[in-house]
Design brief:
The chain has 4 helices and 44 strands. With 697 residues, it is mainly beta. It has a 19-stranded antiparallel sheet that branches. Strands 13, 14, 15, 16 and 17 form a 5-stranded antiparallel sheet that branches. The longest helix has 6 residues. The radius of gyration is 33 Å and the shape is elongated. The two termini are 26 Å apart. The relative contact order is 0.05.
Length: 697
């Protein structure tokens, strides 16, 4: 998305293009009151808004069926006018100071009016971009630049008529140019190409200049530039008076038509003596950047004939720049530790290290939770190859969970140890902005062992069972949701997945599980939304997977009653009592939320679940002013209905609950508090209370 933030002439509002559900919209935001007005249009996408000098119109780029054109929306009359209508791509509209013309970027080449498209559209060079302008009153289009290189980001001068600034990659690097346009009456009638003065380069930046913005008095030109491994904002004072500079052609431009197998000498850009502490070769420690003292910098410029103690990384070689081959070099991006909560095993935690290269083509994650020894520790390694649109992932991991089982006759502890070692390869291929397919193959080795205490420190293994399995999987995902503070607030998402156990591995498990999950979100007002979800799971085969229906995810504490009897725990039955099959522990899936019920309230190889929530800020609804920190305390009312079954006769045995809850932001964690009543044929139960962690589904 290209939001193209633009200020109104009175500086009281901004206009921005942003995502709104399945499509984009224009938002007009009052800077002081924060109130916003949403303008929607029947476009696939909206980009790069520009406010007219009189404040009455907005120009923007609208896309439909892959084609982008320039449109104008009149804020007073609410009329939408299409200025360009052809097969070419138009972008970056920029108003002239009197509001009579719009400059824009296009790949239309000589077909200036867009009325004579090429017979073979595949032979047209759509990568060649030039600057054009359109007369608002006549819709007559004129060509400003006609070059072999590209231009972008045009802006008109306000105090000097028919002068524009733009960036161009004439030398192979994007630099800023100033050009005066010669407009004659005869041009408008007889030609679509203007007489041109020679464009003048006013910068020689080695890493490029982008996104120009000019103050209304033309005293300051602001642009974005890349330096020292990051993007920064730079400015040029009095750009209309700045003298032109020479921009040498890079070796890429000079030798782009040559084919050679010569090796580039990459040693020339190494530093010979000392480093200034920055990745660039210029030491700015003694420079003055305040514009009113700019003249003091003249004495700081070193004599060109003096030898420099630092070798510039951009040394010229044969009148061009030394090309530098990109080398993958990993750097540490993040060191983090986190805590989580598992439905079965309770609180967990891990330290994580993340590495990537500068382009983000390769990502590596390492995690560990080292305890007594390797077999009782959690650790994982993950690698992501992200160079192409299709992403590839590989990971290996080991998880271990030790827990108390009871005592021997001699009152010595008996402990259980569950271990899972896995390898996984995974592929994700996008088809559109919102749709992708995913697939992979995983190998799992599971084991369960019992350990009896022999003295205060030592345990002996007395029993063990294990098996291995290969699992192919595939899924189709659509997701265009917009997220708020605690979860999705608008849009639609669905995940259709299938997992197959073809009988590979030591235990020859045979099951095929299909899951369908559909979620729709409706934004109602600024803070409120309505959410609905439908989920269906079906497992077939000799070793069907089980679905455990009931409870909420990450349930920390809180309980209620079932059929008028106080619940002893959050579970209907204990999955870790040592009597369940090992595959039930690892392959069964918890289906939540069904508030008003315990974990495993229903168990079956088929499951259906429907959830409905109305989410709103409770205190704001009660009239508490927005300025208080607690005003956005999230609240919700809900209805959960579900059933799990093994055969058709059990399908009618549904469970349902309703209630209300709130979400409390604790900084690192989001605490959810729910009060739920289960629905029975004879009425309702007493409320059950759930304290859990996590965002909205």
């Amino acid at each position: 998305m290209q939001p193209g933030i633009t200020w109104s002439p009175d500086s009281k509002r901004i206009a921005i293009a942003a995502k709104a559900g399945k499509s984009d919209a224009l938002y007009l935001i009052n800077i002081k009151s924060k109130k916003k007005e949403k303008l929607t249009f029947d476009f696939d996408g909206i980009f790069t808004a520009a406010w007219s000098p009189n404040g009455e119109q907005l120009a923007f780029v609208g896309t439909n069926a892959g084609a982008s054109d320039i449109y104008i929306y009149n804020l007073k009359t609410k009329e939408l006018t299409q200025l360009t209508d052809d097969i070419y791509s138009d972008s970056e509209p920029a108003w002239s100071s009197d509001g009579s013309r719009l400059a824009f970027i296009s790949d239309r080449d000589d077909d200036v009016e867009g009325q004579n498209p090429p017979e073979d559209i595949f032979t047209h060079d759509y990568s060649q971009k030039d600057i054009y302008y359109i007369d608002i009153s006549t819709n007559h289009i004129m060509r400003i630049t006609d070059t072999e290189y590209n231009e972008n980001h045009p802006v008109w001068a306000h105090t000097k008529e028919n002068t524009i600034f733009y960036v161009a990659d004439k030398s192979g690097v994007w630099n800023i140019y100033r050009q005066e346009i010669v407009v004659q009456e005869s041009d408008i009638d007889s030609s679509n190409t203007l007489d041109q003065n020679q464009p003048l380069a006013i910068t020689n930046i080695l890493t490029g200049a982008f996104q120009l913005s000019l103050t209304r008095d033309d005293g300051l030109l602001v642009f974005a530039g890349y330096a020292d491994l990051g993007w920064d904002v730079y400015s040029i004072t009095q750009p209309l008076e700045k003298e032109s500079v020479e921009v040498p052609l890079t070796q890429y431009i000079l030798k782009k038509d040559e084919v050679t197998e010569d090796l580039t000498d990459l040693r020339r850009h190494k530093r010979n003596a000392y480093s200034t502490g920055r990745t660039s070769s210029v030491d700015y420690s003694d420079w003055i950047f305040a514009r009113e003292y700019n003249h003091f910098n003249q004495s700081l410029v070193s004599n060109e004939e003096e030898d420099s103690a630092v070798t510039d990384t951009t040394n010229l070689y044969e009148n061009g720049y030394v090309p530098k081959e990109y080398k993958t070099r990993f750097t540490l991006d993040m060191v983090n530790s986190y805590a989580s909560f598992n439905n079965v095993f309770g609180a967990q935690g891990m330290a994580m290290f993340a590495f990537s290269d500068i382009l983000g083509n390769h990502q590596i994650y390492l995690g560990t939770e080292m305890v007594i020894d390797l077999q009782r520790s959690d650790y994982f390694f993950s690698y992501a190859y992200l160079t192409h649109p299709t992403d590839y992932y590989f990971s290996l991991y080991h998880t271990a969970n030790e827990y108390f089982l009871g005592y021997t006759d001699q009152l010595l502890q008996i402990r259980g140890l569950l271990q899972n070692f896995g390898l996984m390869g995974f592929v994700s291929k996008p088809f559109t902005r919102f749709t992708r397919i995913e697939g992979g193959l995983s190998y799992h080795s599971f084991s369960f062992s019992k350990w009896e205490q022999v003295n205060y420190y030592d345990f002996n293994k007395v029993d063990e069972q294990s098996f291995s399995v290969f699992l192919p999987m595939a899924s189709w995902v659509f997701d265009n949701t917009v997220f708020g503070y605690t979860g999705p607030i608008d849009g639609f998402r669905q995940n259709t997945s299938i997992v197959i156990s073809p009988g590979w591995g030591s235990k020859k498990l045979d099951f095929k599980t299909l899951k369908l999950d559909f979620r729709k979100y409706f934004k109602i007002g600024r803070y409120s939304s309505l959410a609905g979800r439908m989920m269906l799971g079906i497992s077939l085969g000799a070793d069907k997977q089980k679905f455990y229906l009931g409870g909420v995810s990450n349930w920390i504490f809180g309980k209620g009653e079932t059929d008028g009897v106080q619940d002893e725990s959050q579970w209907r039955r204990d999955i870790l009592d040592g009597n369940n099959d090992l595959e039930d522990v690892y392959f069964s899936e918890f289906v939540t939320p069904v508030r008003g019920y315990r974990y495993m309230e229903q168990v079956g190889s088929n499951v259906a679940l429907a959830n409905f929530e109305f989410r709103f800020p409770f205190l704001l609804a009660m009239g508490v002013p927005e300025k208080f920190m607690i005003s956005n305390l999230g609240s919700h009312i809900f209805l959960d209905v579900g059933t799990a079954w093994d055969n058709g006769t059990e399908f009618e045995e549904t469970i349902a609950g309703f209630g209300w809850g709130m979400k409390i932001n604790l900084g690192y964690l989001l605490l959810r508090v729910d009060a739920a009543w289960d629905i029975k044929a004879i009425g309702y139960s007493k409320p059950q209370y759930y304290f859990s962690l996590g965002t909205d589904w």
